[in-house]
Amino acid sequence: SVLQQAVLTRSVTELGGDPGTVSTALASAVPKVTVLEPPTTDQAGFGQRYAVLQVVSILMYMVILIGGQAIAGGVVTEKGSRIVEILLACVRPTSLLAGKILGIGCAATLTTGAIAVIAAATAKVMDVLPDLDVNLDATVGWMLAWMVVGFLLYAVLFAAVASLVSRQEDLTTVTMPLILTIVVPYVLSFSMVSDPQNTLFRVLAYLPPFAPFLMPARMTIGVSSVVEQLAALGLAVVTLPLLMRLSATVYTRAVTRTGSRVPLKEVLGRRAR
Question: What is the DSSP letter of 41?
Fold first, then answer.
């Protein structure tokens, strides 16, 4: 190595060059890699896309989980204090349930949606992400659409299971399965970026419990089309009336039954009054 360096230095000097400059250039030289068929994680601007994905998934998680728990807590409070019996003397159970979901839903989606809109507008005005190749307007628009549909999908289920218990201490037991169905797609929305075109992820993205998290994530990282988004959104909208009907049945039959936890099988098996 010493001999090679000496020969190189002598040759550079004889050619009229500066050996120090050549040595510095050689020491700092690094290969420039051009990926011809890049996977998602190697695409230019992936870091910025992933940052946007994180914000979208976190906001979606906040709306669905916090909003759902607020609805469940309100149902249990009204049932445990017997206030619901007074309310049902004035309104129908389905009207009371719809009012609760729409009221909390509007508050949750409007406040959280405002955060997304203001953040996107600020990023564009301040040029925070100058090299971002994500359409922030389209991303925020799809996020708001999925936020409304996702909240409704889970809100009706939170209200239904909460009507089965009369104490706040029992609420965690009945809502835990729903919380898990929220946490799982939330985590998958981050892990799917390693292989977004995997068949499993593509199928799960169409299923209503997973779609509110996975579809916005796929749109953000650039592997989903408008047609795919509309198809998944349509499937979720078609599923929503079925869940609403099931939730209304459970709520109507269980919300006035105080005391111990009402078995779901018993509520669904009873004949409607």
Answer: G
List Cβ neighbours of 173 (8 Å cut-off, separation of 6 or more). 165, 261
Structure tokens at 97: 């349930």
CA distance 110 to 103: 11
CA 173 to CA 65: how far, in whole Å? 15
pLDDT in tens, 102-119: 999 999 899 988 988 898
List the one residue out of 148, 162, 155, 136 whose CA is nearest residue 211. 148
pTM: 0.77
Q: Which tokens is 264 given?
A: 């779901």
Structure tokens at 136: 């922030």
Return the structure tokens found at 78: 């009204």
- The amino acid at 217: A
Question: How confident is the model over 51-94, as pLDDT tens digits?
Answer: 888 899 999 999 999 999 999 998 888 888 888 888 888 888 88
Q: How many CB atoms lie within 10 A of CB 46?
A: 18
